[in-house]
Amino acid sequence: MNTKTDKVLIKNKPEEQNAIVGIGASAGGLEAIESFFQVMPVDSGMAFVVIQHLSPDYKSMMVELLSRKTKIPVHRAEDGLEVKPDNIYLIPPKKNISIFHGKLILTNQKNREEILINLPVDIFLKSLAEDQGDRAVAVILSGTGSDGTRGVRLIKERGGLVLVQDEASAKFDGMPKAAVSTGVADFILPPGEMPSQLLAWLHHPYTVKQESTHKEIRQDSGLTKLFSLLRSKTQVDFTHYKMNTISRRIQRRITVTQSQNLDAYVDYAAKIPAEVKSLYRELLIGVTSFFRDSDVMGQLEHQFLPQMFKTMTDNELRFWIAGCSTGEEAYTIAILSCEVCEKLGVNADIKIFATDIDKEAIAKAGIGLFSESIAADLSPAVLTKYFYRRGDQYQIARRIREMIVFAQHNLVKDPPFTRIDFVSCRNLLIYLQPVLQQRALEMFNFSLKPGGMLLLGTSETTGTMDNFFEILDQKGKIYKALGKTNPVPVQIEHSKRNQNIQIPLPAGNIRIPGRAADRSEEKLALRLLNAISNWYIPLCVVVNEQLEVVYTTGDSRGLFTLPPGRAVYDITKMVDQKIAIPLATGIQKVFRTNEETIYTNVRVHEQNIERNLRLNIRSLPGRKTDEPFVSVIFEDINEMTTDDLPPNECNLDEETDQRLRDLEQELQFSRENLQATIEELETSNEELQATNEELLASNEELQSTNEELQSTNEELYTVNSEYQKKIMELTEAKNDIENLLSSSRIGTLILDEDLSIRHFSKSTKDLFNILESDIGRPLAHLSHKISDFDLITSVQKVQKSDETMEKRVKSENGKCYLVRIIPYRVGPDSYAGIVVTIVDISD
User: Fold this and answer.
1) For range 561-573, the mean pLDDT
2) Fewer CB within 10 A of the terminal residue: the chain, N end or C end?
3) How far apart are CA 707 and CA 701, in angstroms?
């Protein structure tokens, strides 16, 4: 026993502190389980449920074997058995196990003919996460396959703890490697070191007093520092995320890192960059799977997607999967679209944009490689049709991958996609505060075409944006975009430097901008000006550089009106058109030169009465740092001749009016040209956007092709190595034969089926005139030194009869030889050639 660990556990804990630990193991797991429980204290306060892949044909001896290694009571699980602290429960053969309200539920495993794969560890961990929440612990030990991969994600989503055996200590690293690849493991340790981490987590102050801890974190000033640190390292601001979720996951990291409080954790994260990355990954943890919420997917496949394909106009559909995580949702929509197209017999251009803020998740989604545990979510037909095996994993089919463009995208910060027919954003809005939810829904409303569909999570609604969407299915949270645009607020927004200026309706009254209205002296001045302005002060208007009215005194009746439509405070649109052009020209001249400008003889018709006006335009004095303003004074003139005008005044006669009309026409023409240019630029921008999307898709295709070429290169390298080894073996065999023939001193001549020379030994040269270049030549072309012997006839006879022939012959020099002609055997009863041997028997 680990006595040091035992001392930590001497204190009794309240009942609510107990945790339930789900331990998953397979091949090689017995040794790891024994190592785990050998150092686990008897009174840890935790309950353990061990799930193994047991053979259905043999009785398990696990209870007896494990009881010898630990003093903790070991039980074989039974249906309805209540889970109690300081006990171990083992899964029985032929059963799947789950937990509900602290009691074990046993179900029969399905036959292998009914399902592709049985995942008992995932089944239990899923139920454990739902039943125990942040009091759940998942431990993955040695084993083959990927069972437990989905379970650890769910445990982590609910705030539980995840421990995985390190690959070096595991006899079989399949299950540990798959669990580590999810990125949710809190600790990767040998089994013998896991109990100490479990105990430290269980008795950490933040784990013991959870409710008060959440409140402390939400109110702690250190939270702002932590958000600032996250934003500087990841470029993501978590300020407006749901605080309950944020505080719970920050608390987990405080517990895992064994920090004393939030301030200590902030200091720790500032020193350890990897911890910021871990917290960022935990805050963005996305739980997803293929065909998640099967009822909703069924509605899409049989009702809503067929409707979209039937009503599409340009043979193209564009989908946007926001918050796609590792890509399962995007691939599911792509598969459903292919199935619907196949059933309807249509050929549509489907483009799916899958986005997420998590760069690592996007990279993994782009690869399209998934563990074999996805077989539990897919039917055999879909798995066979759209996936292929790649080792112990499944690779998405290339035609499905080519339909999707994966990209990193901040939903509430980056520009949205346009001309979208279908948006899916499930289980993301629930993590955002209302201000970000509103922003995201506005983005979706902007992206969707009129009549486009929006799919939300089962716990999400459109909130204050319900006027922009029509509910199609309340249970499935499927909406239709009504095509409405966001209303433009009546209040005009200005730049920051004049944000305190109030713009009144031009009705003759005065409003003092900014904070001046709070002062008593200026209040008195305001009352005085309002009292005398309509009788003693001519109409005076103050405008800014945008020609917007910001201040008025005097009576504006007969001169100023609000144009129809959206509220506009442009002075040139509020006055009579006869004075609009000189007014705009004079104001711009004063802003440019800072010199006073006066116009006279400006005539305005008001109810059959002609008014003769004098416009006095001058800049308002102020400091250089103040925003520039211009005042325009409108004075009524009864009788005045041109001789009385000051030198700096100008008379607007008929020629001037004509010139102004000409300039107005030219300006209108320029505006029309500018508008046409803008429209052309917008069209070009859309084309460039489409081209950019195609380039992104092409880049993805090239990356996929590169991966395939790399895989093919590896296979060719392996095959080449095998061939090189085979060539070496053949070379050695040939050398052996050559040496054998040479050492026997027997002349050997090997012929093929056409009686052409295939091989010969050196001793053959004693009787035959043969060279290396004669290989491949017919035997009839060779001359020999044997007397009274027809070699060709003898060879042909043996070839027909497949029987061996022997004959004694003499050479021209008088030596005696034994000639043996044998059929060349290639099988039990098959021959393909002739072997001629010549042995010197003169002695």
Assistant:
1) 77
2) C
3) 10
How many angstroms separate the CA atoms of 836 and 824, rounded? 10
Both tokens of residue 334? 């792509």
Cβ pair 494, 471 in contact under 8 A: no
Q: Is the pTM of this model over 0.85?
A: no
pLDDT attached to residue 654: 53
| Rounded Cα–Cα distance for residues 463 and 271 (Å) | 41
pLDDT at 653: 54
CB neighbours of residue 446 within 10 Å: 15
DSSP calls for 123-189: HHHHHHHHHHGGGEEEEE-S-SS-TTHHHHHHHHHTT-EEEEE-GGG-SS-HHHHHHHHTT--SEEE
What is the mean predicted confidence (pLDDT) over 61-74? 84
The CA-based diameter of the chain, rounded to the nearest angstrom, is 159
Over residues 698-734, the pLDDT tens digits come to: 776 776 666 567 655 555 655 465 566 678 778 888 8
Q: Which residues contact 501 (CB under 8 A, 6 or more apart)?
A: 494, 513, 514, 544, 550
Closest of 254, 330, 318, 251 to residue 288, by C-alpha: 330
CA–CA distance, 233 with 228 (Å, rounded to integer)? 9
Contact 453, 423 (CB under 8 A): yes
Q: Which residues pair with 836 in a beta bridge?
A: 749, 821
Per-residue three-class SS string for 766-820? HCECCCHHHCCCEHHHCCECEECCCHHHHHHHHHHHCCCEEEEEEECCCCEEEEE
Residue 386: its H or E element = helix 380-386
Closest CA relative to residue 183, chosen from 141, 153, 219:
153
CA torsion sign, 460 to 461 to 465 to 471? positive
Q: Which residue has the tokens 């995942």?
A: 119
Backbone torsion region of residue 293, taken as left when φ is above 0, otherwise alpha when ψ lies between -120 and 50, otherwise beta: left
Query: In whole numbers, what is the pLDDT of the chain averaged over residues?
Result: 78
- Tens digit of pLDDT for each residue in 306-350? 998 888 878 889 999 998 888 889 999 999 999 999 888 888 888
Neighbours of 205 (CB within 10 A): 11
Q: Compute the average pLDDT of residues 134-148.
A: 87
pLDDT at 211: 47
Residues 6+ apart with CB under 8 A from 790: none
Sign, Cα dihedral of 410, 412, 418, 421: positive
Percent of the chain with pLDDT over 90: 9
Tell which residue, 454, 352, 359, has the closest CA to residue 396. 352
Alpha carbon distance 447, 440 (integer Å): 11
Distances, alpha carbon 239 to alpha carbons 55, 247, 267, 317, 410, in Å:
51, 12, 19, 35, 14
pLDDT (tens digit per residue) in 187-246: 888 998 899 888 888 876 555 555 444 455 555 556 777 777 777 777 777 776 767 777
